[in-house]
Amino acid sequence: MTVAPLNRTLDQELAALVRGVSFECLVCGEFLLHVHGVLACPECRSILVEGRELPEFELPSVVQAG
């Protein structure tokens, strides 16, 4: 019995994000927000946009619990 690798390529990870299957930031691992058709990480501020134009929007600030 062999162990199947669980690593995915960057293309597979990006496709999962775009399809809505994954909600995890590829940079820091936090949950992504859907803001005006854009996937954005409120923690590291990375943004994933389909197409070439980035719509005007403001990311909500991250509030630490506790």
Give an overview of the whole structure:
The chain has 66 residues and is an alpha+beta fold. It has 1 helix and 3 strands, in the order αβββ. The protein has one helix at residues 10-19; strands at 33-35, 38-40, 47-48. A 3-stranded antiparallel sheet has the order 1-2-3, with no helix packed on it. Strand 2 and strand 3 (47-48) form a beta hairpin. The protein starts with 9 loop residues before the first helix and ends in an 18-residue tail after the last strand. The model has no long low-confidence stretch (mean pLDDT 76).
| Parts with pLDDT < 50 across at least 5 consecutive residues | none
How confident overall, as mean pLDDT?
A: 76
Radius of gyration, Cα only, in angstroms? 14 Å
How far apart, in Å, are the first and last alpha carbons? 46 Å
- Treating each run of at least 4 consecutive H or I residues as one helix, how many helices? 1
Question: What is the number of beta strands?
Answer: 3
Beta percentage is: 5-15%
Order of helices and strands: HEEE
Q: What fraction, in percent, of the residue positions are helical?
A: 10-25%
Strand order of the largest sheet: 1-2-3
Structural class: alpha+beta
Sheet with most strands: 3 strands, antiparallel
> Which overall shape is indicated by the principal axes computed on the Cα atoms?
elongated
